Amino acid sequence: MNIETTTPGILLIIAIMTLVTLVTRFGGVFLMSFVTINPRVEGFINAMASSVLIAILAPLAFDGDVGARLALGTTAMIMLATRKPLPAIAAGILAAALGRYLI
After folding, report:
1. 21-63 pLDDT tens trace
2. Number of domains forming the structure of the chain
3. d(CA 18, CA 15)
4. pTM of whole model > 0.85?
5. Are 61 and 81 in the same domain?
6. What is the span of the domain harbouring residue 20?
């Protein structure tokens, strides 16, 4: 299936992506309404967020540029030292910017 990249085609693509996003979000909430939340399910849901984050960050640690590695290292160190995510994220962004600017 080919969709032209003219204005109507782009609007159609955006509409399809919007529909898919809404169906997955509402579908997940609908399906979870049938699941009893016990400690095992709650543990799975909590672990899922961490595993998604690790899946996103692990390739950066191995294949990322200097800025990405500086950002990961800085964010990890600040987070371990302060236990506050916002300063750690800000420091990571600053480290990536400086690393990419200077190196």
Report:
1. 999 999 999 999 999 999 999 999 889 988 988 898 899 889 9
2. 2
3. 5
4. no
5. yes
6. 1-35
Q: Which of 52, 54, 55, 89 is nearest to 74 (CA)?
A: 89
3-state class of 83 per DSSP? coil
Task: Identify the sign of the CA torsion 74, 80, 81, 86.
Answer: positive
Are 66 and 17 members of one domain?
Answer: no
Query: Does residue 25 sit in the same domain as residue 69?
Result: no
What is the DSSP annotation of 4-31? --SHHHHHHHHHHHHHHHHHHHHHHHHH
**Joined tokens for residue 73:** 């290292």
58 and 29 assigned to the same domain: no
Within 8 A by CB and 6+ apart from 9, the residues are: 3
